[in-house]
Amino acid sequence: MSLGKEFKDFAMRGNVVDMAVGVIIGGAFGKIIASFVADVIMPPIGLLVGGVNFTELKWTMKAAETIDGVEKAAVTMNYGNFLQVSLDFIIVAFVIFLFIKGINNMSKKKEAPATPPPPPTPSKEEILLAEIRDLLKK
User: What domains lie within the chain, and their CATH numbers?
Assistant: First the structure.
């Protein structure tokens, strides 16, 4: 089997295609959640804590300085951005948890065995034949 044919068989397998679709949709979903957190959730939280924009929170470890006409940037630790990304992650993880939980609940309902149908009632002929059999045994 040639390398090209093996790769084609691998790439066209259902699991690989499903995974690729999941990665693409997951990337788009991540952008939606990031926008939701940054544009919808964080502004009210920032307002509650005194009008703070979390992405701008930072600790300046060394101030910016100009040496011989060359400006050196400040050294900062941007913990506000870390808080923003952490909140994004928590929301994405929670939504995925709810999504998987919903899928599992739906699959359990599908897998739940239905109550077995009652055995069919014997026909009149079967009842008559059973009576004849019982009489012959006596």
Answer: 3-116 (1.10.1200.120)
